[in-house]
Every structure is written in C-alpha cells, then in structure tokens.
Design goal:
Mean pLDDT is 79; it is low at 1-24 and 26-30. The chain is elongated. It has helices at residues 6-13, 36-45, 55-63, 67-79, 112-120, 150-164; strands at residues 19-25, 83-90, 99-105, 125-130, 141-147, 169-173. Helix 3 (55-63) packs across helix 4 (67-79). With 186 residues, it is α+β, with helices and mostly antiparallel strands. The protein contains 6 helices and 6 strands. It has 2 domains: 6-90, no CATH class; 99-173, Alpha-Beta Plaits (2-Layer Sandwich). The chain is 34% helix and 22% strand.
Length: 186
C-alpha cells in the first residue's frame, strides 16, 4: 500500500472549505532542472485546492494549460523525484469534528494491501498509510479518523477492527492542534 488516498478524500471533502494540498519535495538535490511551468504548477499545488469538482482543471486554466497537461506535469514531477508526495490535510475542527485519533495497527505483512484498502474505504478515514515498524514500536499501518468525541473514535476503531479482522491496535489522540502549514517554494 503505497501512496495517499487523496482521490477518495477529495471526492468526499472537495465541496467543503477544509481541505488543502500538501506538497512535499524530495530530499536532496533535484536530479533534473525544473522550468518556469514546473514552478507554476508547484506554486499552485502547495496551497489550498480550488473548491470545484475539477480543481486541477481550474489550476491548469490559471496557468494556460489543459487539465490533462497539468496532471501529467504533477506526475512527471513526482516520477523525477522533484516532489515526493501530493496529499491532503483535513482541517478537522473547521469541518465540525472535535476529536481525531491516529490509529496505529499491527497488520501482518501479507495482508497489508488488503487491510489498507478496507480501511481507506471507511468514510471516517482521511489518511491511511504504511510505515516500517521501529524497534519496540510494532505498528505498521496508520489511519486518521475523525469523530464528534473520543468515544466515537473508539467506536470507529472497533468497527474497523471487526471488519478487517485486525485486533492489535492503539488509538493516539491529538491533545493540541498546531497550525498546519506547508513550505512554500515558489
């Protein structure tokens, strides 16, 4: 399970003014030069997405290219290692959720893709990603869920656990929300 589930998140949240794009550049020196059009694309994807059913078409029009060209440019930037990922951030409190929890799951390696797809399909999940376990921390799959209170987050986790057949998990609640910002490069 590699990559973000931005498409499903945007499908559910694009109509709300609570989703922003997250642009993360690759580490190290850029392996290729970037041109002025690349800089314009990067400038647009590092901020809020237009509130439109086709946000990439809106951004493409702004810089004078087609939606297809815009999407291909983003893919090319990723493929060349110039950007590492393109994700989304849900401003959960502004969207009406007072509680959120990161659920860390211990999933057998041979089930990670299947379980990841199951979890990503939950309406309450905004992020679902895999990480390698570290020393004494055995968890390898993470989901961010949002609810009206902590109890609702626990109920969501229990339902996810039951459906996926994964019983080894822990909920990590946000205690304080820090301002969510991304670097701006151009």
């Amino acid at each position: 399970m590699k990559g973000d589930i931005i498409a499903s998140l945007l499908g559910r949240q694009a109509e709300k003014d609570h989703v922003e794009a997250v642009f993360t550049p690759a580490k190290g020196l850029f392996p290729y030069m970037i041109d002025d059009l690349d800089k314009k694309v990067i400038s647009l994807i590092q901020g809020d997405l237009p509130l439109d059913s086709r946000p990439f078409a809106v951004m493409a029009k702004e810089i004078g290219i087609t939606e297809k060209e815009f999407v291909e440019r983003v893919k090319d930037l990723r493929d060349r290692g110039i950007i590492r990922r393109f994700g989304a951030t849900l401003r959960h409190q502004e969207a009406g959720f007072s509680s959120n929890a990161m659920i860390a799951w211990c999933v057998p390696d041979d089930r990670i893709d299947k379980v990841g797809k199951i979890f990503a399909g939950f309406r309450e999940v905004t992020h679902c990603y895999q990480r390698k376990p570290q020393r004494e921390w055995k968890y390898n799959l993470y989901t961010m869920v949002h609810g009206n209170d902590r109890e609702q987050c626990y109920q969501i986790a229990e339902r996810m656990s039951r459906i996926a057949g994964i019983n080894d998990y822990v909920l990590l609640f946000s205690e304080k929300e820090f301002r969510k910002t991304s670097m701006e490069y151009f």
